Amino acid sequence: MTEPGRLTVRKTYKLYIGGAFPRSESGRSYPVTSSKGDFLANAALASRKDARDAVIAARKAFPGWSGATAYNRGQILYRIAEMLEGRRAQFADEVAAADGVSARKAGELVDAAVDRLVWYAGWSDKIGAIRGSANPVAGPYLNLSTAEPVGVVAVAAPPEGPLLGLISVIAPVIVTGNTCVVVASERAPLPAVTLAEALATSDLPGGVVNLLTGRLGELAPWLASHMDVNALDLTGCPDDLALSCEQAAAENLKRVFRPSGKPDWLADPGTARLTAFLETKTVWHPIGV
Amino acid sequence: MSTLTTSPAEIASSNASLRAFLHGLPGVDRVGADQRAAMLGTRSIKTTAKAQAIDLAISMVDLTTLEGADTPGKVRALCAKAVRPDPGDPSVPKVAAVCVYPDLVERAVDALAGSGVKVASVATAFPSGRSFLDVKVADTRQAVQAGADEIDMVIDRGAFLAGDYRKVYDEIVAIRQACARDAASGGEDAHLKVILETGELATYDNVRRASWLAMLAGADFIKTSTGKVSPAATLPVTMVMLEAVRDFRDRTGRVVGVKPAGGIRTTKDAIKHLVLVNETAGDDWLTPSLFRLGASSLLNDLLMQRQKMTTGRYAGPDYFTLD
């Protein structure tokens, strides 16, 4: 609500790459409408070059992020949850507009997203305990397996659940030390851009999460075939696109996560997403006799 | 521009006449130069033209390793890469030269024998150039004896900035003589590249004067920087130097090459430089014998872009050598 005589300050929705908020390299944008068809804003329409830049930013951020202690990563995820909580009203408005749900329901969805972050934040220093092991071997060795992040993960965020769904795909990827390039929901990208603003102010190093808004069909094939992407999360891909992405991903043996059926974001997420983007490192250490 | 009526030796006969000549050169409009270089940098080079530009840029690279930690093994690896930049693709052209410190020239010469890739050596108390002339001459002579095809010398920036142009001139002439190979070995004289270290020259006017001074003293190439000082090769500085070689040819008939070095890391940067060459000096200079790119990490980016054009997929650095 603006006071009479005051100019409205409109928000420009941009991309989030390497900790900065650039416009699309292509200069394109597309109109975003509410669930009722009302115009909401123009969002940046990312091009394949933006995707390429995002991968470079994610790769650059990987050594620092994966090298941080699990405790530190957990703290930063918790910090993101704090930032989200502080913007609760803004997110609730955006979710309500995008999904056409009541203000109360939208508030519940935002709360669920914050809780989801806190839940994943707790996993940072515990995932090693369930995915690592001390292996019994027939020899004078101490044999240990530990979980390691795969690297850069390209994520197709789900079209539904503009905030809860988005958080539910990003948090499990980054909590274990991966960095990611996320293509936000094409229909409802505005909460993703607002999330980027929260990420930028939450001690998350630039480049760990890169958010692109635009057409998944245009961006996904380039990310799927990119030789410097280590894994794909095809949650938001329609079946035909997912199939061609899986084929392209085979070129450099990317890990591909493609859930079956429509995910229920309010259900208990389990550890499937956490463990999908981990490699196992096994160390043989001679035992002194 | 009119032909040069006086000979370089006459111009250099005294500090006063050198000063009169160099300060008589037209000044550089800094804002205009920056703007023109930026404008040329926005040219869009795509598809087949880009493929051609990438191959040309690869063939112009002086693959460089100038670290205190250089080992014989690293030089050998770099030489292998120079000859066959992408082991998986024989259609990639070889680079122009490998550039090393003088004591590693012999290793590079061994590794590159018969390949057609030249060996360049920095000399003259690189990178500062702060030593005695005897030492610099000896440094150069030993590098030439070890088999260097090209010598990258640094000018005495201190003398230049103090206005002692004669000293800079004499030093270049002395190093040029040290580049001569004795008749017994029968080889060609080593080519002399003169590094101006433009990052320390402060103004574009000085860059233009230093370029002319080096060319009058007999440089075969003028080179922007050592790569140890920032800013190194910037587009406007390269443009001023390209204008200098163009004007020098118009006035004397002698053709001098240009080598930007330092800070050129991406294919985009390299292509911007090629556009600049074409638009400033002309396409006569678009050959490895007259234009070089001094770089180390640039080659991998060129190879990645090249692979992207042949496979249609974005390439990743994991598939290229670390050096």
From TrEMBL, chain A:
Protein name: Aldehyde dehydrogenase
Family matches, as PANTHER family: ALDEHYDE DEHYDROGENASE-RELATED
Keyword hit for Oxidoreductase: yes
Keyword annotations from UniProtKB, A to Z: Oxidoreductase
Signal peptide per UniProt: none
Transmembrane intervals: none
Short name of any one Pfam family annotated for the protein: Aldedh
Location of the Aldehyde dehydrogenase domain: 34-256
Coiled-coil annotated residue ranges, if any: none
GO MF terms, alphabetically ordered: oxidoreductase activity
Protein origin, superkingdom: Bacteria
Keyword Secreted carried by entry: no
TrEMBL record, chain B:
Superkingdom of origin organism: Bacteria
Pathway involvement of the protein, from the record: Carbohydrate degradation; 2-deoxy-D-ribose 1-phosphate degradation; D-glyceraldehyde 3-phosphate and acetaldehyde from 2-deoxy-alpha-D-ribose 1-phosphate: step 2/2
EC number from the UniProt entry: 4.1.2.4
UniProt xrefs under InterPro entries: Aldolase_TIM, DeoC, DeoC/FbaB/LacD_aldolase
Gene Ontology biological-process entries: carbohydrate catabolic process; deoxyribonucleotide catabolic process
GO MF: deoxyribose-phosphate aldolase activity
Matching SUPFAM superfamilies: Aldolase
Keyword Membrane: no
Catalysed reactions listed for this entry: 2-deoxy-D-ribose 5-phosphate = D-glyceraldehyde 3-phosphate + acetaldehyde
Coiled coil: none
Class of enzymatic activity (EC top level): lyase
SMART domains assigned to the protein according to its UniProt record, in alphabetical order: DeoC (SM01133)
Keyword terms of this UniProt record: Lyase, Schiff base
Keyword Cytoplasm: no
GO cellular component: cytoplasm
NCBIfam families named in the record: deoC
Family per record: Belongs to the DeoC/FbaB aldolase family. DeoC type 2 subfamily.
Protein's UniProt name: Deoxyribose-phosphate aldolase
